[in-house]
Write a structure and sequence with these properties.
This protein is 73% helix and 0% strand. With 209 residues, it is mostly helical.
């Protein structure tokens, strides 16, 4: 007599891991990282709690893993191209604004995870810096080149360290994007005018003009 094999609904480990990482991202949109437990992730992802510890040491480890996924979505090449076009254009204001809008969209989609990475290990933690710089490398390079060019033209102080100044300029625009909703809501500012103001401030950090 031939025995039949019953179908199994068991998920592959990679699928289970990704479900949990997506669930962490969703939970972080409304909750602080220290308020999330492995049981919360299991419930939100439709998996069993023991599976969590098969993939992650703790919540912090899982948040860092989700953060690495999120930074991989960062549109670095597109942003670098927009910035290059803005720098080369006689009137680059629309391109700088589009650059900033794209950064706002990135933070609006993933801000919970990005903020959690900053709160747990901290912005200056080597692991966070490595992930962030890998994603933002193309944009940082364009910022640094712009600052070096502006120094050569006498528009920015010669004592500026170009890479450090580039990092500072990019951090400014990231923080502005991260808090953009609060900036416009609390100040009752017009969105387009806010985008134009902050994009112009970013341009001045790179060009001195």
């Amino acid at each position: 007599m031939t025995q039949t094999t019953r179908p199994t609904n068991k998920r592959p480990p990679t699928e289970t891991r990704n479900l949990m990482l997506k669930a962490i991202g969703t939970l972080l949109e409304t909750r602080a990282p220290w308020d999330i437990r492995a049981s919360d992730v299991a419930a939100a992802s439709g998996t069993a709690q023991p599976n969590f510890y098969s993939h992650f040491r703790n919540i912090e480890d899982a948040i860092m893993a989700r953060g690495e996924q999120v930074w991989a979505f960062y549109p670095g090449e597109r942003l670098a191209a927009l910035l290059n076009q803005g720098l080369a254009s006689g009137d680059g204001a629309p391109l700088y604004r589009q650059f900033f809008v794209d950064v706002i969209d990135f933070w609006a989609a993933h801000g919970g995870v990005l903020r959690a990475m900053s709160r747990l290990p901290g912005d200056e933690h080597p692991a966070v810096l490595e992930v962030r710089h890998r994603a933002q490398g193309p944009v940082l390079d364009v910022c640094e080149q712009a600052i070096r060019h502006s120094q050569a033209q006498g528009a920015l102080p010669a004592l500026l360290l170009p890479r450090l100044a580039a990092n500072g300029a990019l951090r400014f625009i990231d923080e502005a994007a991260n808090h953009f909703g609060a900036i416009t809501d609390i100040g009752a500012y017009d969105r387009d005018a806010s985008v134009a103001t902050l994009a112009d401030m970013f341009r001045r950090l790179l060009t001195g003009r």
